[in-house]
């Protein structure tokens, strides 16, 4: 039996079972062997009936004393009882709606059981236990693997199936890790790992198997990403000849921070080389990423190419356009805005000028990569707030040009080791400094009892010409109920609490043009309070806004709260953020406490990542990596070790051409194409 044979070729697995397994992503024997348990449970100790206590989970070995009986309690609900005993006492195995037990047990035969013990009215029962014939020890009397199972597959079936696969194909398990790495990192061999991750002889064996497989997983992932990166560097482009940024920085009203300068230098290095740039700029809210993006765009257009600047919302795109276009026009370049809400005619005019090259810089939303858009010579794409885009969208725009330089910017910083994986094919720059003179946004977490005082505070801020954001409890922008509550929240404020103040509402369901007109009235007009859902999260600049209130703050992740808070404190005046969680339980208090204590986006995102785990932190599949089976992106130690191992290996054998690395190269190539599927 070979590893890559279909699971159907295992004796005893029929079409129906194969179909059920396929729903779990298991197609081949290898898939099955690499379907790891989420946990193992120690069921090695078999107890005597007399020693069983109420509520415990326990294993027993018992003989069936008499035929099972059934009691029909009401329609559709039957209780099956199997009378059991061992040499110390009697107990009943209880099953619900499970007619199979009537014929599965033979009176006088011994079985092992595992389940919850109930001790009531002097009688003992074991409730809906797992059971098997005495001596089998697959799911009892052993250290037992626990699998994530599908709707029609029980733990018992999973265990039996994996056992069969191991019996028939265990000898075919190959070790693709080079011997030298196995030794250096003290890993166990592949076939030992596979056997012991499922059926460990003891806990040490299980741990050692887990370590090896987690290491292997992160190692392979990084290796594949590395190959991907090398591949993308293979493309050649004409280096930019003119890298003088002076003409544009001269037009800024400030001088760049050292951190901005350093990142600009890194970008210039990329653009001066003959392979396409693939760079991520991480920088806290307000660290001045836009300026860095603008300088890059400028270098592209002054070298005779077209450039695109992409933002996740039309509000932000428009704002970028309003601040960027005048600078570029002053430098003699033509700039256009392209967003979904523009009329067909307006769009067509932009399309036309993009394809002839008359427009050098285009700023917009995902409207930029719609079908009708074609460029004359697009060479640079800058993506703002990358975390709001899927990887696919980034790809779509890049495909509009040839060997396009890519710069993505994000305000959700993550630790470097992790960034290297998540943004595997990107080089990373960090703006680790805020422009001078920025004051901390004072942050408070308050309860319902001081809402009145908060309203007074709002009134006070507004009376001095400041603006106030209130982020409303809205989880799902598509949820009608949530929408209603945001509308009525705003109406209540406007009619009952601040009848003398102009209160607006902006939410994701509004048309772009409606959003824009509300935002304009808030940013430049007489609207002083803006009730909003998270659409304001990204980018928009309103320097007069000094107060941010976040209702039901516990519903947001810390990074998102930090982003929201970043909407205030953008002008010269002292700014505040008030968090109003809907309850104050310990967990919520702790999270809000982090917000009140620090303004450092790096600290906040790391804590957030730790608390929520990578899955939620990045959003499902947002990061475009295949799901991890056994390792965790939070396991910094293994991450570090495995990345070190990848580095060593590639130093020694950059293309994995050596004989001892042949299996590894094949494995990485498979994963590499998997990743491509996820990323493209
Ligand atoms: P973010 O990194 O959140 O995108 P922005 O690019 O919007 O930050 O910059 C925030 C504010 O800081 C803007 O008003 C911008 O003009 C200003 N700014 C950027 N760089 C500097 C600097 N070096 N000195 C002073 N102000 C700066
Ligand atoms: Mg920004």
Describe this structure in words.
By secondary structure, the protein is of the alpha/beta class. Among the domains are: 61 residues, Orthogonal Bundle (DNA polymerase, domain 1), CATH 1.10.150; 97 residues, Nucleic acid-binding proteins (OB fold (Dihydrolipoamide Acetyltransferase, E2P)), CATH 2.40.50; 151 residues, Rossmann fold (3-Layer(aba) Sandwich); 157 residues, P-loop containing nucleotide triphosphate hydrolases (Rossmann fold, 3-Layer(aba) Sandwich), CATH 3.40.50. Helices cover 40% and strands 19% of the residues. It is built from 22 helices and 22 strands. The strands form four sheets. A seven-stranded parallel beta sheet has the order 12-13-11-14-15-10-16, with helices on both faces. A six-stranded parallel beta sheet has the order 17-22-21-18-20-19, with helices on both faces. Strands 3-5-6-8-7 form a five-stranded mixed barrel. α6 packs across α7 and α9 packs parallel to α10. It is globular, with a radius of gyration of 31 Å. The protein starts with 14 loop residues before the first helix and ends with a helix. Magnesium ion binds next to α10. The site of adenosine-5'-diphosphate has 16 residues, from α10.
